[in-house]
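Pipeline run #58 for the internal structure catalog. This entry was flagged by the ingest filter as a single-chain record with no existing model, so it goes straight to prediction. Upstream metadata was stripped on purpose; only the residue string is passed forward. Reviewer on rotation: M.T. Logging verbosity set to normal.
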Amino acid sequence: MTTPKAPEAFHFAAPEQSPEYYRQVNGVMTTRTVQSSASVRLETISLQPTAPVDWRIRQPALSLLWWRTGIQGFEIETDGEMTRIDNARRGLLGIIPPGIPVKALFHTDPFLTYHVAFIDTALFEDKAQFLLDRPLIGFSDTRLEQSLAQLQDWRDDATFPLMAQGWALQTIARLQVALEAPDRGPPVARGGLPPHALRQIETYVMERLHEPIGLHELAGLVGISVRHFARAFLQATCLTPARFVFERRVAHAKEMLADRAASITDIAMACGFSHSQHFANSFRRATGTTPSAFRKALLG
């Protein structure tokens, strides 16, 4: 009989570690998952605190945190000012702007679970005019919590990088509205992308279903910024770019499943899924059935 592995002592540096940037948390980590795209790093961490959690962070990216379960209260210090919240509710959110140092002491239940998303400031077209100049900790936003939970569901999917970039752009837009920060980018013409641009994008996607596809390359095809591309594409198709790519992958998989000679693994690879289990999970989420069951119903 094997001896269970002891929980890992949790005291790690930030995604970026230097004399200027850091991230430190004390406690015993029970689980940690990490998924990254070109613009977003998403972590889910479960802690078994041995004392009040001492937490220090300063990062070059926007940090969005969701303390999902286990928070009782906390004290946070920034710019020499202390903010204290007692009897904290489940599901508190926090935003930490790039480059802002924060020290905090969290009082928790025996187990604590939280999510943190680091969003690259390159997604902000006007970096000098950021959303806010100091942290905003302890607010609630049901839609933002739901979107983070949904993004978690996509972390093992082949389309996660594209989904994460789209999620980040939508999150930025939502935060701008909530904080009454004007969107200073040039307006997109009503009607979104023109038909020839949509045809160009569809051709590009269909030729590369087996490869990772990112927002930056799609936006580059039509010569506009990532943020304006995402908005114009949604306006023209009523789909996010990530959903568009995902639906094309599933549709192509359905066509390939009609060929008995094609294995499930080969179809998964051809349609851009990392392996057959990811393909099965994604296909079931889209259709309500597994690839094997779909093939059996189709071919008998």
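catalog note: Confidence is low (pLDDT under 50) at residues 1-14, 181-190.
catalog note: Strands lie at 8-9, 22-25, 28-36, 40-48, 53-58, 62-78, 81-85, 92-96, 102-119, 136-139.
status: ready for reviewer M.T.
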